[in-house]
Fold:
Amino acid sequence: MNAQTGTPAAPARIGSVSTGAALELRGVQKMFGALAAIADVTMTVASGERRAVLGSNGAGKTTLFNCVTGDFLPTSGTIRLFGEDVTTFPAHERVRRGLRRTYQISLLFGGLTVADNVYLACRGVSRARFSMLRPRQGDTLLSRAEELIEAVNLTDASSTMVANLSYGQQRQLEIALALAGAPRLILFDEPAAGLSPTERGELVRLLTNLPEHIGYVIIEHDMDVALRVAESVTMMHNGTVFKEGTPEEIENDAEVQELYLGDGHG
Structure:
């Protein structure tokens, strides 16, 4: 428990995988015309690590994610996933190497059920993704989809059309989609945005209970959520890395308090 805020500390995870770097960024820059959205970003995320990337609007957090996933190619610098240089790889090749991502705005099939959405996600990263055959009883992908739905506590909504889900349930569904296949690193882009306090508590539970071999990087404006689910924190400011440390170090850093929390922070 943090003595200043009463916020529970991130739970210790025994047996965490630490077999090298999941993600390595070296001097990554992204220019839009004359504007440097991110500049000289260098960061290493270990396998199995849970990291928060924090900063004010315009700090470059989502642009950084877009470069990591291949939505944008960096103007300069290198990006390595699990030791492999993927700087120029398209997004689908990075997915094949175990990278997953959620977005600030939900990207779901509203006219399909929860079960259909998760099944399609599982099939999309399988060898059967181009098959035109309908799934049959006993299909292993159907079983896997059911497991993921249960893991995010949506079993009772399995047959519900996604358009009829609450916003919090849609966020839970996005986590299930990100877990399809064999993810090794997941990027969560503001998963708590728009959630109620109860839903945020459920989100924290889901993230802290993910399998230990799955690392993640989370962008989040809700400091309470971010500092509860992260083991390490990177602060960004004006497109660059400003500070790195543990949640406790970042929360108690005077420069961070002045820049992001205001002079009145106690």
Observations:
- The two ends are 17 Å apart (CA to CA).
- The first helix runs from residue 61 to 69.
